[in-house]
Amino acid sequence: MSTATQPRTWTREQVVELFELPFNDLLFRAINVHREHHDPNAVQLSTLLSIKTGACPEDCAYCPQSARYKTGLKKEKLMPLEQIVDAAKRAKENGASRFCMGAAWRSPKDSDIEEVSAAVRAVKELGLETCATLGMLKEEHADALKDSGLDYYNHNLDTSPEFYGDIISTRTYQDRLDTLERVRGAGMKVCCGGIVGMGEDLNDRAGLLVTLANLDPQPESVPINNLVKVAGTPLESTEDLDPFDFVRTIAVARVLMPKSYVRLSAGREVMSDELQALCFLAGANSIFYGDKLLTTGNAAADADRELFDRLGLTPDQK
């Protein structure tokens, strides 16, 4: 089905109907949409580095970096510029085309923005795309990051508006939308997705994706995370999501957001090669690449290269 016949604004009911399609029918539709807009055998590689770890005042129930939970994570200061640049060089040598920097802040201070901006400029000089996730942004901070050359800003919605209060109480859904608006106003690209497997139901997964799809413009990058259950967090004993429901989420995201990069994000380290292959088939065309995400493990880079070889996939260098 050509995306030209798809609605400009999606309803929750339409998205639920997509989720409820027979699995093969949903994949067939997602595959066609994917091939219409992307090279089906190319996957964009991003590397994520935690440049300031721990002691976040927020209460996100999934996050080991919250100061409210005892997860054994040590608080670290902002990483020196030289270490950030060295990590970016290694990422590029290993094939990454985008370098993402994450800091555990509720909202950065002026001095924080100055230091991150210096890191952005240094990473850009290496020829890498840059991305940052630093918490909520003021308008002037978004402008400063744009001026430094930041390409993408990541700020996830996490889940549906209805389920959000079960996961986070220290910032509102509207707070997140306001930051996304400031990022757009500054002229940066948006990286925005969510987490599944947190105890939400199908309607909540539909609610997350319809909210993302109806952003104008749609996010250029959409990370879909499968919950990594960390001991000490409120979600450590959450029941695992059915793997086919995860693939359905990838497929529906692809149908709703045809031109976006849909990123297979957290949770890959416990996914089988077969499950990842299904996700690529369903429209995932970006991954976090490297042995670690912000604080949790990631699929090993060597294993990724071997999987790419087996599947005939190549890095997307756009």
Task: Reconstruct the topology from this structure.
Blueprint (H helix, E strand, L loop, with lengths): L11 H8 L3 H15 L4 E11 L28 H13 L4 E6 L6 H15 L4 E5 L5 H10 L3 E3 L6 H4 L8 H14 L2 E3 L2 E3 L5 H12 L7 E6 L16 H14 L4 E4 L8 H10 L3 E3 L12 H11 L2 E2 L3
Parallel strand pairs: 1-2, 1-9, 1-10, 2-3, 3-4, 4-5, 6-7, 7-8, 8-9
Helix pairs in contact: 1-8, 2-9, 3-4, 4-5, 5-7, 8-9, 9-10
Walk me through the structure.
The chain has 318 residues and is an alpha/beta fold. Helices cover 40% and strands 14% of the residues. The protein contains eleven helices and ten strands. It has helices spanning 12-19, 23-37, 81-93, 110-124, 139-148, 161-164, 173-186, 202-213, 243-256, 273-282, 301-311; strands at residues 42-52, 98-103, 129-133, 152-154, 189-191, 194-196, 221-226, 261-264, 286-288, 314-315. Strands 1, 2, 3, 4, 5, 6, 7, 8, 9 and 10 form a ten-stranded parallel sheet that branches. α3 packs parallel to α4 (110-124), α8 (202-213) packs parallel to α9 and α9 (243-256) packs parallel to α10 (273-282). The longest helix has 15 residues, at 23-37. It is globular and about 50 Å long. The model has no long low-confidence stretch (mean pLDDT 89).
